[in-house]
């Protein structure tokens, strides 16, 4: 064997060692003990940041073993064409004939193709042969930029308004949700979940905080809004419709009954207010007269819908309703009365205690499966589901609401969503990220080396053949 051939064989042996066990094979965990220890030390903090990218699952280990097998296959094919090249050159020098030249050319081109593709594949994950050649170790060096590009790609192609609307419109959420809600079991489930959520929310809220908020809101709303005009309009409408007459009937009837039962008390009150110098029999006669006239007046007012007193009362209420709406003094007096009433401690305690009663009522209704609240909610859900499943207008409204909400979220929080991708990729450890990516796509990349060897050999054979034909 000549010196050139000997050097070629030695170079190929070194290349095999580099490809199979040297710095060119992270899939086998190559490197010295010190390097592995250092790598483990660097990976420990990453395990707390993102365990998925600093450890290998059983599936990942299977893939890594597959990558190692393909590396050995590709390297073995490179060594095979190298041996073929050496033997062909040796045979050519021994005068074996023209065929040796064709074989040597094919093997030589196969080696070139295999080495070129090995360099290209290796440059994705690390520096070939550990030499810091420019534009190599692309993935570990460009990891953060790849994360940014991935985030931008997702933001532009998946989080755009047009894409979200088209996808949701294709899904038809309104009709699907309606069909789902129309099933009684599903309505029961939603009702139970809503009841649990309501109970949880009411349990978390502190009564004192809610009472303070409710009291302040009611007081502030009452202070900010003048009530006299509203009361005046309401009173005017009630008088115009005759709604106050039932109240007058009730009051007069009760007054008549009270006078019948307490006639002695009325006469005693009249006699007690008489001057001391009048005779007792006169005071008695006056008391009896006042009582009889008062009873007659109340009886006539009760029995006569057209009684003059009723008409006077109607005119009084009508005038009072008008004053509440237009008279400045009357409105001011009502506002002062409102302020005094709201400022009383009893009123504030009543407002505060209202929340406790309402809360207890709602919690009790939410816990009872047969309560009116839960039954009404269930019936409303079933009705809503039936309408959503059959009414295109309702479906369109629901789809529009869902689309609007989704578009608002993706357009408003697109940067936050994409930053989740970029920040997550940035937090990954470069070494483990490279190994994990290689474990997932490395097997296919090794086929590039094999194809390069085969295609290179065929191309070399073709070129050599054309050259011989043209030379002849």
Topology:
Elements lengths: L2 H19 L11 H17 L8 H36 L4 H28 L12 H4 L1 H15 L3 H11 L1 H9 L2 H21 L2 H18 L3 H14 L2 H18 L1 H10 L7 H24 L4 H19 L1 H16 L1 H23 L4 H19 L1 H21 L1 H14 L2 H42 L1
Helix pairs in contact: 1-3, 3-4, 3-21, 4-21, 6-20, 7-19, 8-18, 8-19, 9-17, 9-18, 10-17, 11-15, 12-14, 13-14, 15-16, 18-19
Description:
The chain has 21 helices and no strands. Helices cover 84% and strands 0% of the residues. The longest helix has 42 residues, at 430-471. Among the domains are: 3-141 and 429-471, no CATH class; 229-329, no CATH class. The chain has helices at 3-21, 33-49, 58-93, 98-125, 138-141, 143-157, 161-171, 173-181, 184-204, 207-224, 228-241, 244-261, 263-272, 280-303, 308-326, 328-343, 345-367, 372-390, 392-412, 414-427, 430-471. It has 472 residues and is mainly alpha-helical. Helix 7 packs antiparallel against helix 19 (392-412).
Provide key terms for this protein.
single chain, 472 residues, mainly alpha, 21 helices, disordered N terminus, membrane, transmembrane
Low-confidence stretches: 1-9, 18-52
Distance between the termini: 30 Å
Please state the structural category.
Answer: mainly alpha
Question: How many individual helices?
Answer: 21
Average pLDDT number: 80
How big a fraction of the residues is strand? Answer: under 5%
3D shape = rod-shaped
Portion in helices: over 70%
Computed CA radius of gyration, to the nearest angstrom: 48 Å
Output the helix-strand order.
HHHHHHHHHHHHHHHHHHHHH
Q: Could you describe the largest sheet, including whether it forms a barrel?
A: none
Tell me the total number of β-strands: 0
